[in-house]
Amino acid sequence: MLYNTKYMLPLLFVLTPMSVCAQTQDSLQTEKKSALTDSVHRMTEVIVRSNQMLGSKFEARNRTGSAYYISPTEIVKFGYTDINRMLKSVPGVNVYEEDGYGLRPNISLRGTKAERSERITLMEDGVLAAPAPYAAPAAYYFPNAGRMYAIEVLKGSSQVQYGPFTTGGAINMVSTPIPSKFSLKANASYGSYNTLKSYFSVGSRFKYTGFIIEYLRYQSDGFRKDVPNERTGFKRNDIIAKFAAQTNNEEGLNHLFELKFGFANETSDETYLGLSEQDFALRPYYRYAGAQKDNLKTRHTQWVATYVIESPRKLKITTNLYYNYFFRNWYKLNEVRVGNTKAERRSIDAVLADPETNKAYFDIVTGQTDYVGEALMLRANHRVYHSRGIQSKGEYRTMLWDGYLTAELGLRYHADSEDRFQQDDGYSMQGGRMQLFLKGLPGSNANRITTAHAWAGYWLAKWSKGIVTLTAGMRYEDVDLLQRDYTKADPRRTGMVRIETYNHA
To answer: Residue 103, Cα to own-chain centre: how many angstroms?
Structure first.
């Protein structure tokens, strides 16, 4: 069959531009869709809860100042119970070992005094956790790291929001949040020296309510050897319960109320008595007979009520009402005597520093020499702490000058107290065994109450645009301290003899 190309060629030339034009338009539309698709990246949602300082590693990296976030993934990965081991990876944090288990950590931030972590702001879920952070800041209570969800560290001036210790920094222990759906967890581990750690939690969230209950048990026989063979270990229990109710409005204000209860106790055979330099070189894990009665008992109770009101985009107000109770009695060797006069007394530091000069005292401590009478003086460091307060903060976020503005204003009233009611008991040493010789009168050693009332407020604003971030803030603290010393002469605290010391800062 023959075709007439006279008419075919013009038709071909007419159709070709139309086809090319159509292909070009389709290609442009595809490129536009591809460009739009390429500009959209899937991002993980980061939620900073009201009880957190940072909330994520992303926030820690992008915060002005020095910040560090130990994530839930890291905590699960390493499975540590010792807070000292957790914090060793954080720059600018120094820890000093004391008992080998992290029961009473000594933490220093930016070179501050490490003893009993008394120069850092210690918090749990954004609430002050030390027994009496103003009246007696030494943290003989430290939240159990084994039940924590995350740990946040802010150092220096970057944490103006958190006081009272702003020079060193703040550590916030974030407890396990209420799960988004039903969750049941249980795990246990067993190791050397009969060390046992067991954990159990159950929780769930419904449309408007949620709850979680946790229990942690941590115990060990201890790695130190005593003469005679007494226990040198510890037992810890920790229970946390949370209940929450909230609204889920798509528009308008949302409300959240959460109630948290915690109880913890500890019994540990810990001592301040060390070793002489010679014995430490030969047997560093040995304990002398004079430490066989040393024991620490603690009880801690906490209540925290949290109310959050939040608008869809800009404003969020968080209020915490809290109360903490802490009791401790560290019954430990404090002094050695070979007579009734003051010249015949030695502190345990003096005895161990020069055992040759103080051989008579040293032999009693080691159990090599018998002594009937008040030879070993054990002090019952009986103390009760109360702390309570209310704090509220407002957070506002908006766009300003093509940048992102975050402003925060906070106010807190806090009151705490320390009640010392101590005594010294005298023990004899016979055949390497300690026997009670004379029990002291309660309040005959230290008999005083220290109270503190503090108002604190702060303002912080941060503006960000691109690679530029500007931060400005200020903090104000007003503290009243009052010490009532009833002295040894008034153990019943009748008030007949009382020395009052007042301080304002």
So the answer is: 12
